[in-house]
């Protein structure tokens, strides 16, 4: 189940002066993260801070079952968000869920101007760009997995490269 922080943020309401071609966001921010790495620490603190500021934030709180298809509601929430904060962590690329979210985020970044804000949490931005270190190992496992489509892996790699070139925050310690 997704958790939504609520507010009376102007970006979440439509005004009579806005044209029908202007997108109407249901969320200010979509949080993409690997629960194993950051759910109980960094992401919880970030989510709480956003909520306290009145920023409407989508964060998936369900335990995602491995091997299951990503929820259509999750992809819809990405499309309905103005910003995406991607917390790239050590195990982020090990998760097909995270990579599917990432590919959708990059697609929306290119098509609907979704603003992407990466956080490099205990990972080096150059490892993200070049898919080296732990990230390379994770992709090697995906490529060996007969349940994973090669086309998907290529899309995930391209999305990760794109995000790796975006200036973001580099968090190493706290």
Explain what this protein looks like in three dimensions.
By secondary structure, this protein is α/β, with parallel strands linked by helices. Helices cover 41% and strands 18% of the residues. It has seven helices and six strands. The protein has a six-stranded mixed β-sheet with strand order 1-3-2-4-5-6, sandwiched between helices. The two termini are 28 Å apart.
Task: Explain the layout of strands and helices.
Layout: E1 2-4, E2 27-33, H1 35-38, H2 42-52, E3 57-60, H3 72-79, E4 81-88, H4 96-111, E5 115-121, H5 125-130, H6 134-144, H7 150-164, E6 169-171
Parallel strand pairs: 2-3, 2-4, 4-5, 5-6
Antiparallel strand pairs: 1-3
Helix pairs in contact: 3-4, 4-7
Low-confidence blocks of residues: 1-21
Q: Secondary-structure element sequence?
A: EEHHEHEHEHHHE
The end-to-end span amounts to 28 Å
Shape: globular
Main sheet makeup: 6 strands, mixed
- Across the major sheet, the strand order is 1-3-2-4-5-6
Radius of gyration using CA atoms only: 16 Å
Multimer state: single chain
Count of individual helical segments: 7
β-strand percent reads: 15-25%
Summing up helix and strand content along with how strands pair, one would put the structural category as alpha/beta
DSSP strand count: 6
The share of residues in helices is: 40-55%
């Amino acid at each position: 189940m997704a958790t939504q922080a609520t507010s009376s943020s102007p970006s979440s309401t439509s005004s009579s002066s806005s044209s029908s071609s202007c997108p109407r966001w249901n969320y200010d921010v979509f949080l993409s993260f690997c629960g194993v790495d950051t759910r109980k620490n960094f992401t919880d603190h970030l989510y709480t801070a956003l909520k306290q500021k009145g920023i409407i934030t989508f964060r998936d709180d369900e335990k995602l079952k491995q091997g299951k298809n990503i929820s259509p509601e999750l992809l819809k929430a990405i499309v309905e968000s103005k910003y995406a904060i991607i917390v790239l962590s050590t195990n982020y690329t090990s998760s097909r869920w995270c990579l599917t979210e990432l590919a959708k985020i990059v697609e929306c970044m290119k098509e609907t101007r979704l603003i992407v804000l990466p956080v490099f949490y205990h990972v080096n931005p150059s490892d993200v760009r070049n898919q080296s270190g732990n990230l390379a190992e994770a992709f090697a496992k995906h490529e060996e997995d007969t349940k994973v489509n090669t086309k998907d892996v290529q899309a995930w790699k391209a999305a990760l490269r794109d995000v790796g070139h975006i200036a973001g925050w580099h968090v190493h310690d706290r």
